[in-house]
Model the fold of this input.
Amino acid sequence: MSGKNVVLFGPPGAGKGTQAVRLRDLLDVPHISTGDMFRYHIKNDTELGRTAKEYSNSGRLVPDEVTIAMVRDRLSQADVKDGFLLDGFPRSVPQAEALDKIISDLGITLDHVVNISVQDEEIRTRLAKRASIEGRADDADPAVIQNRIDTYKQQSEPCLSYYRPKGIVRDIDGIGSIEEVFDRIKAVFEK
Ligand code: AMP
Done:
């Protein structure tokens, strides 16, 4: 199997979280979701959680310095030595640059940016559906959904231009059943 230092990338509602659990099991590496980390802090009402809440409730990104410090801390733990699956990070070019620095300090490189793509209309439908199932505060309000899509386009999508010249972006069509999409992702690692 090819390298296991992986970023899972894509717009909100692309199915990153759903696919991440499957990919984590396939690769047997820790799943590091910045969204889950922030939700944990929000639930436990920590200082970090109080900061994160302000931003995530309106569909904006938590400031880079806060997010980068949290990820640097997580990637310094021993369990990532045989690989990791980053889900929801990086979400801005400064975060992508910071990640390069973090992993080069660890003496490793990034192997794959798995980019799940889904069109805007489908994203809106999926997020509205997820709001009614999971009750996520940031999925409930159409204005917040639009904000998250705009934030993705303005701040996160440019990460792809940052990674493409490095030859590590693996484009995955995110339309189809969970199994169909996962089969496409699996093929990346079977090469
Ligand atoms: P997610 O579950 O990945 O959609 O993340 C939920 C929310 O957490 C986002 O809308 C952001 O407010 C925040 N968040 C998650 N990951 C990041 C990140 N890499 N940078 C900044 N904010 C983030």
